Amino acid sequence: MKLDRYDLKILEILSRDGRITKSKLAEAINLSVSPCWERVRRLEKAGIIEGYSARINAAALVRRTPVWVQIELKQHNAESFARFEALVHDTPEVTECVAVGGGVDYLIKVEADTVDAYQRLIDTWLTGEAGIERYFTYIVTKTVKRPDPGFSRDDFTA
């Protein structure tokens, strides 16, 4: 699907404010309401817009201890990776996980109630069948920059 400047602007605006009214969105991109809304529906139907959600400030609800962990698995085969990734998906304290190349296999972000709760989680993984060879723990002392879920049309060309 080829996107033009109007589509990219729609994505940029909706990524920052999914609750914007149809008329305000149309005004912001310089189109009338009907053609603008047809473009939104087309982007939704194409799967480019997957949904709309609210950003929740979890720290305002519950104080969590963020911990970044480097994980290296004992074995490097599809079964080991699948088993570990299933474990990650089934662990609500894991809020982010990426597979990486280099000296480690995964970087994960764990948000536990306390450092002790984090360590109990890791101990469970080590005594279970997670297949962890070694891990390195990094306690977050300050968040310098948080990911912005916003879309920037400057990142793409139409």
Automatic annotation (TrEMBL):
A GO BP annotation: regulation of DNA-templated transcription
Keyword terms of this UniProt record: DNA-binding, Transcription, Transcription regulation
Record has Transcription as a keyword: yes
SMART domains per record: HTH_ASNC (SM00344)
Pfam families referenced in this protein's UniProt entry, alphabetically: AsnC_trans_reg, HTH_24
Gene Ontology molecular function terms on file: sequence-specific DNA binding
Lineage top rank: taxon: Bacteria
InterPro entries per record: ArsR-like_HTH, AsnC-type_HTH_dom, Dimeric_a/b-barrel, Tscrpt_reg_AsnC-like, Tscrpt_reg_AsnC/Lrp_C, WH-like_DNA-bd_sf, WH_DNA-bd_sf
Keyword Transcription regulation belongs to the record: yes
Domain HTH asnC-type: 3-64
GO cellular component labels: cytosol
Protein name: Lrp/AsnC family transcriptional regulator of ectoine degradation
